[in-house]
Each structure stands twice: as structure tokens, then as C-alpha cells.
Amino acid sequence: MAFSLKLNSSSGVPYYKQIVDYIIYSVINGILKPGEKLPTVRQLAVDLQVNLNTIVKAYSELEHKSIVHTQQGTGTFIAETQPDIDNSEKKNKLHDLCSLFLDEISSFGISAREALGMLEKIIHEKRADKKRGGSHA
After folding, report:
1. What is the rounded distance in angstroms from the CA atom of residue 63 to the CA atom of residue 16?
2. What number of other Cβ atoms are within 10 A of residue 115's Cβ?
3. Any domain includes 101
4. pTM for the structure as a whole
5. What burial class does residue 105 get, using C-beta atoms within 10 Å of its C-beta: 0-12 exposed, 13-18 middle, 19+ buried?
6. CATH number at residue 46
7. N or C, which end of the chain has less CB nearby within 10 Å?
8. Is pLDDT above 70 for 34?
9. Beta bridge partners of residue 69, listed in sequence order
10. Is the domain of 69 the same as that of 36?
């Protein structure tokens, strides 16, 4: 599987965590399927231009969360059955995304109030599009 992940060095989020989040997102959205083999630690480290230990740490965390399983000598695979992502993890991710969003908009001189107004407008547009049978949620 070719990873389309681009690591963001300015986000403040450690690379291993970006990798974990990307793989979880890909599993939840059906991009990565149960039983699918992930790139080797070495290959992913080369592809993402990071230290091997970064990939080892990401894969270890994913294994601890039962998202993947590793078979010695064979590789790392997406688990056949996926655990539910618990609410605290979802809230933590939402907090991280909102914090990053606020940092980004403030760097452009955009206030939180302006951003909130735009977010509400986009939500309204997407709901209207969905009612019309569009593909946006």
C-alpha cells in the first residue's frame, strides 16, 4: 500500500503520532482493509524520511491499541477486527485538531470568531448539499 501521508514538521505533533493518526484514519475510512499488509518498518522509514525508531514506536502504539498485529518474519498487518475508538481518544484528537487549527488561523491574522463564522457557513452548505443528494457530509 502506498502511503499518501505527508508528515508536518511545523504542526508540533510528533511524527510517530502523525503516523498513528493516519493509519487509524485510514482504517476507519476503509482505505486500509483488515488483513492488509503495512510497509515494513525500514521501507516506511525510507519513504517518510524518518528514523526507524519512529516507525517502530508508531507500529508499537498501533499494536497496543489492537489496530495492527505483527507476525515475526512476515510483517505488520491491519487487524481483522477493529476495536471501537473510545470517546476519550476522539475528544483528545478533536482537541489537538482544534488547537492546531487555532494556531494556523492566528498565523494568518484570522480571529477565532471569524473562523467560527466560516465553519458554521461551511456546515450549513454541506448540510444543504447533502439534502440535495450531494456527496458531501
Report:
1. 13
2. 16
3. yes
4. 0.68
5. middle
6. 1.10.10.10
7. C
8. yes
9. 77
10. yes
From 2-16, 43-57, 75-89, 119-133, the region with the lowest mean pLDDT = 75-89
Residues 72, 121, single domain; the answer is no
Give residue 42's pLDDT band: very low, low, confident or very high (50, 70, 90).
Answer: very high
- Helical (H) or strand (E) element with 77: strand 75-78
Residue matched to cell numbers 485538531: 97
Report the SS3 class of residue 137: coil
Specify whether 69 is located in the same domain as 101: no
- The backbone torsions φ and ψ at residue 84, rounded to the nearest 5 degrees and listed phi first, read -70, 140
Q: How far apart are CA 96 and CA 12, in angstroms?
A: 10
Name the residue range of residue 114's domain: 87-131
Q: Which one-letter amino acid corresponds to residue 79?
A: A
Domains of the chain: total: 2
- 24 plus 65 within the same structural domain: yes
> Does residue 22 surpass a pLDDT of 90?
yes
Distances (CA, A) of 59 to 27, 36, 70, 81: 14, 14, 9, 17
Residues in the chain: 137
Amino acid type, 40: T
134 versus 99: the higher-pLDDT residue is 99
Whether residue 49 lies inside any domain: the answer is yes
